[in-house]
Amino acid sequence: MNTSGTVTQTHIQHGPMSxxxxxxxxRVSAVLPVYNEAAILRELTTxxxxxxxxxxxxxxxxxxxxxxxxxxxxxxxELAAEDDRIVIVHLARNFGHQPAVHAxxxxxxxxxxxxxxxxxxxxxxxxxxxxxQWEAGYDVVYACRTNRKESLVKRILFYxxxxxxxxxxxxxxxxxxxxxxxxxxxxxxALLKLPEYDRYFPGLRSWTGFRQTGIPVERGARHDDHPRxxxxxxxxxxxxxxxxxxxxxxxxxxLIAAASAVVCxxxxxxxxxxxxxxxxxxxxxxxxxxxxxxxxxxxxxGISILGEYVIRIYDQVRNRPVYLASETVNFxxxxxxxxxxxxxxxxQPAGNRSTFESTIVPQVDLLLESLERQYSLLVTEExxx
Length: 385
Ligand code: UDP
Ligand code: MG
Description:
Blueprint: E1 7-8, E2 27-34, H1 38-55, E3 58-65, H2 72-82, E4 86-90, H3 97-107, E5 112-115, H4 126-135, E6 140-146, H5 152-168, E7 177-184, H6 185-193, H7 201-208, E8 212-218, H8 231-245, H9 248-278, H10 285-318, H11 331-347, H12 353-375
Parallel strand pairs: 2-3, 2-5, 3-4, 6-8
Antiparallel strand pairs: 1-8, 5-7, 6-7
Helix pairs in contact: 1-2, 9-10, 11-12
This protein binds uridine-5'-diphosphate and magnesium ion.
Residues 117, 119, 121, 222, 227 line the site of magnesium ion (MG).
């Protein structure tokens, strides 16, 4: 943690901070999943609006009603009727916290998207500090939860989960960082391109890379004593996190195979010693022991080899992109130059080539740039005539 109170991830590349960012010039979306939170929704909306109104010129609040049955649906509709900056996605049934967050992100239109819970455990005023960091050039700003006001059992479980996850995950996922945080549009778009079904949002957000930083945010107490995500739900999420970011559970069988090979060697030695030298071996014992331990280790080896195939199939099916680029340099001029080269070769005699290039290349550059801006169209070299 540095002096300004930010926790910076070392695994993520911190390049020079990019062009000027201004919170007043963009649209901010706040995304909140809601499951039976009628008691707090009005208060939450008031607090959230206060912060957003103070900080941003344009904003929207995207509530995702995840199949609530306590009047949240009606209350949300009322709030939306009072203010058209509140938009609502009513899910057809209760799909769960992570799917609701995904639905919200998918329906958010902002240049930056803030994800938070709707039980006031995530303090809306932290959004101000998120925006400070975004303006400083970070693409992801997440809350590192401090001072959790939850039961001791839950605190121990969370603490252990984050440590276990980090010791086995192949992507570094910051400990104590949940969903609460801000993402730049490019991170949101990258996240939405990931087609995997079982989603652990904080892990996927880390996986995208870009420039990420964490800030300590106190985790408040729930407005009531009934967490909407059950302990069973939390365990399921923990499993999703571990299995979608680690192949360790499968590769563990290599260790089992190695250990059982050692046991097999020792058993064979011990059994043969008694069989051949002391004569203490009971008839049938030597062959039983040797075959059992040999095939035991062979089994474990077989499972680890199968595991290798399963991991590869899983990676292929999950279909995450092989890489994400945060920016490219000089590709536009390379492309314009190639196009101008081709035009010059077709239309101009050799003598006029340089004049042609000096006039045409900048024009082609400008044309492609405006095409890209207007139609969000990326003209790649492959698409050129
Ligand atoms: N939530 C949801 N669908 C569910 C369970 C929870 O949308 O099936 C919402 C809930 O309303 C809250 C957030 O997800 O805004 C987090 O839920 P909870 O407070 O129970 O989780 P915890 O803070 O204990 O992790
Ligand atoms: Mg909560």
